[in-house]
Specification:
Blueprint (H helix, E strand, L loop, with lengths): L7 E6 L1 H4 L11 H13 L3 E6 L2 H6 L10 H20 L6 E6 L1 H5 L1 H16 L3 E6 L13 H11 L4 E6 L20 E2 L4 H5 L13 H13 L3 E6 L4 H7 L6 E3 L5 H12 L2 E7 L1 H10 L8 E5 L7 E6 L2 E7 L4 H7 L7 H5 L13 E3 L6
Parallel strand pairs: 1-2, 1-5, 2-4, 3-4, 5-7, 6-8, 9-11
Antiparallel strand pairs: 7-8, 9-10, 11-12, 12-13
Helix pairs in contact: 2-10, 7-9
C-alpha cells in the first residue's frame, strides 16, 4: 500500500459521476468526494475541481429526437452549467467559483497568466474553484476535447503537486477487467512507456469522452512537469476514506521530478527573458532572504519592451538574482516603479496586482555579493 501525500490537488470528476443517468445532475457519487474535499481543506490543503457534466445536466431540458447538433449541445451546456454549479455548491459552506476555459485560453500567454492569478486568488480567499471547458462557445479547434487533459492543464496552470482523476474503474489494470477476469490492478507506475499506453482501452462509458488513454495522456503531461497523478474509482466511497488516511487506493503515476524543480528549470532555461528590472537593496534582501514577491516600491529601473506574462530578469547592481513572470507591461512599470502598491490604481487608472512578480512565479539565480 503506497503512501500518498499532497498539498495542492486538482480533482477531475467526470460526467458518469455527476450525471449517472446522462440527463440530470445527481448526488449519488458526489457525497464522498465532497467530504474528502471538505476534510482536506480543513487540514490546510488546497483543492481545485475539474468538473464535467454541464451537457449531461442540460440534456433533459433540450428535447431532441436525433443526434444533437453542436448548437443544441451548446444550449444543453448553457442550461446545464447552472445546474452543475448549484449541485456542487450544496455540498459546501465555502463559495464555489465557476471557471470556464477553452484551449485558446490555455494557449494564449496573457490569458494563461490571468487564469493562474485568478485560481491563486480564489484559493487565497478560501473559495473552491470549479473548472469546466466552456462548451457553450467552444468549437472543435478551441476545445481541449476531454476533461482528463483539461485536468492536466489545470494542474499545470494552478501549479498543483497532484492530479486526482476520478474514473469508473479502480485504476490502470494489466488488461481490461471488464473483459479479462484475470486482470490485476497496477498500483504504481514509475514512468509512462509505450507499454503503459498499450494497456489503455477505448472510452469507458457512453457519457464520457475520455477513456483510459486520455487519463494516461493527462498523467504523462503532469508527471513530466513534476505533478504526481492518481487514477481512482470515483464510484467507490471507500476510496476517499483511504485517500484521507494517506493511502493509494488506485494507480499512482510518480512525478519524474519535483514540481518546484520542474518549474524552476522551465523558468530558468526554457523561457527567454524579454527584459530586466533593476531593484534596490531592500527588495534584494526581501527576495533573496525572505522569499518575498517583488513590489513596485523596490524597482529603480525598467529595461526592455515586454508584456504582462513575459519572463524578465531581476537585477541587483550588475548581478541577475532572479527571473520571473511579470504581471505588468514595461510601459506600466515605468509609471509605478518606486511607488507603493496602494498607488497603482491611481497611477495606471486600473486596479492591477499588488505585486509585480509573485514569488510563485520567480526562481532565484544568484545571491548578491557582499
Amino acid at each position: 500500500m503506497s503512501d500518498f501525500t499532497w498539498k495542492r490537488a486538482v480533482i477531475k470528476v467526470g460526467s458518469a459521476l455527476i450525471a449517472p443517468d446522462g440527463l440530470q445532475v445527481s448526488a449519488k457519487y458526489l457525497l464522498p468526494i465532497a467530504r474528502f474535499i471538505t476534510e482536506s481543506r480543513a487540514a490546510g490543503k488546497e483543492v481545485i475541481v475539474v468538473s464535467s457534466g454541464s451537457v449531461a445536466a442540460g440534456r433533459g431540458r433540450v428535447a431532441v429526437n436525433h443526434t444533437a447538433s453542436i448548437a443544441e449541445k451548446q444550449a444543453m451546456a448553457a442550461i446545464g452549467q447552472t445546474q452543475m454549479m448549484s449541485n456542487w455548491q450544496r455540498f459546501f459552506d465555502c463559495p464555489c467559483a465557476q471557471v470556464l476555459l477553452t484551449a485558446g485560453d490555455l494557449r494564449d500567454r496573457t490569458r494563461y497568466v490571468n487564469i493562474k492569478n485568478t485560481l491563486r486568488e480564489l484559493l487565497n480567499h478560501q473559495a473552491l474553484p470549479i473548472v469546466n471547458e466552456n462548451d457553450t462557445v467552444a468549437v472543435a479547434e478551441l476545445k481541449v476535447g476531454d476533461n482528463d487533459n483539461l485536468g492536466a492543464y489545470t494542474a499545470l496552470v494552478a501549479q498543483a503537486d497532484t492530479l486526482i482523476i476520478c474514473s469508473d474503474i479502480d485504476g490502470l489494470f494489466t488488461a481490461d477487467p471488464r473483459q479479462d477476469p484475470s486482470a490485476t490492478l497496477i498500483p504504481n507506475v514509475d514512468s509512462i512507456s509505450p507499454a503503459i499506453y498499450a494497456l489503455a482501452g477505448g472510452a469507458g462509458t457512453a457519457m464520457g469522452t475520455g477513456g483510459m488513454r486520455t487519463k494516461i495522456e493527462a498523467a504523462d503531461k503532469c508527471t513530466q512537469s513534476g505533478i504526481q497523478t492518481l487514477i481512482v474509482n470515483g464510484r467507490n466511497g471507500e476510496v476517499f476514506d483511504r485517500l484521507l488516511k494517506g493511502n493509494n487506493p488506485g494507480t499512482l503515476f510518480s512525478a519524474q521530478q519535483s514540481s518546484q524543480k520542474a518549474r524552476a528549470l522551465w523558468l530558468t532555461h526554457t523561457l527567454a527573458s524579454k527584459g530586466s528590472i533593476q531593484v534596490d537593496a531592500g527588495a534584494t534582501r526581501a527576495i533573496v532572504c525572505k522569499g518575498a514577491s517583488l513590489l513596485p516600491s523596490g524597482i529603480t529601473h525598467v529595461n526592455g519592451k515586454f508584456c504582462a506574462g513575459d519572463a524578465v530578469e531581476i537585477k541587483s547592481g550588475t548581478q541577475t538574482i532572479a527571473k520571473g513572470l511579470v504581471l505588468y507591461d514595461a510601459k506600466d512599470l515605468h509609471k509605478i516603479k518606486g511607488q507603493k502598491s496602494q498607488q497603482i490604481a491611481t497611477l495606471l487608472g486600473f486596479a492591477g496586482s499588488e505585486v509585480v512578480i509573485h514569488r510563485d512565479d520567480m526562481v532565484l539565480l544568484d545571491k548578491p555579493h557582499g
